[in-house]
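Translate sequence into structure tokens.
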Amino acid sequence: MNVRMTLVAATAVALSAALAGTALAAPGGGGHDATREALRAAVRDGVPGATAAARDAHGGWRATEGVGDLRTGEPRSAADRYRVGSITKTFVATVLLQLEAEDRLSLADTVDTWLPGTVRGNGHDGREVTLRQLLNHTSGIHDYTSDEEFGRTYLLKDGFLAHRYDTLEPAELVAVAMAHAPDFAPGTSWQYSNTNYVLAGMVIEEVTGRPYGAEIRDRILAPLRLRATSVPGTRATLPRPSSRAYSKLAPTATGPTYDVTRLNPSWAYAAGEMVSDSADLNRFYRALLGGELLPPEQLTAMKTTVEVTDAPAFRYGLGLMDRELSCGVHVWGHDGGIHGSLSEAVTTADARHSLALNFNGDWAGDSDAVLEAEFCGG
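Result follows.
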């Protein structure tokens, strides 16, 4: 079962168009034949191109399939930088846990402690929601990206093409959510909500007095030397090297394909705006699960999971998913989607085997099959 924690889930559906592709493996990359075939299958299913990188006890491996530019036929690159969508959430949760370790906040704090009056209206009450509930999606706060008007204006074709360069403030995103009733009382159930991480980013900024992206840069990117990873803010372009990104901009997998490479990701903010590459994502999750970024107490808290509704193979921690694959292997990480980009990044609990991948189309391909192939042998 594929549970995509995407920002544009309406367009993450199956497709039938097929494209040809070629594979590129790094020297010494044997033993990943099933993974390579799963990438080829994604391209046959309609993904324009795929790029992936893995690291295990035998070293590093990388592969590409398909094209990075439908107009020129230029292939995808193993060094491509791409929008990682909701993988951003793990970075945000890591910063909040670091702040807790420094006694600058507590996950038991309510949202109102740091953002008084922000979560109000239609039954929402920030005095009853904790930071922990934001991070593990048990807050009940409505997801602003599921608002129909927001979807028409910013996610689907006509609205996206007219507003792709608009700048939205975090408070505007929260206001969209506050126009709806809560999904449930805080702490009584689970529901994925991008609003939770918009609020988490706002809390980081309130606590530190700095942009949340600056905290991610100084606390994670610089120490780990993640030079391909960035928090773009309002920047519409992708840093090079990168491929084009494509979408149907529709809730179905039919119709024209649009180049959506350029967009202002402020509408995603701390819920999903970041850019990275496969090597950096592997390095990040290996460092995180390996204890390089958090003290033991905070890492244990991050890995303390709750049940994911209607997905028994998944459990959700604090910005971190625990997924049991068909062979019984557990992998920790996150997936993410944003216009023209679907990504996965996971590692085993011992941080010895990691995989990160990206499809440069948001309507096709089975990334779960790639994970199964890498960790279970197909």
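Note: Residues 52 and 217 are 24 Å apart (CA to CA).
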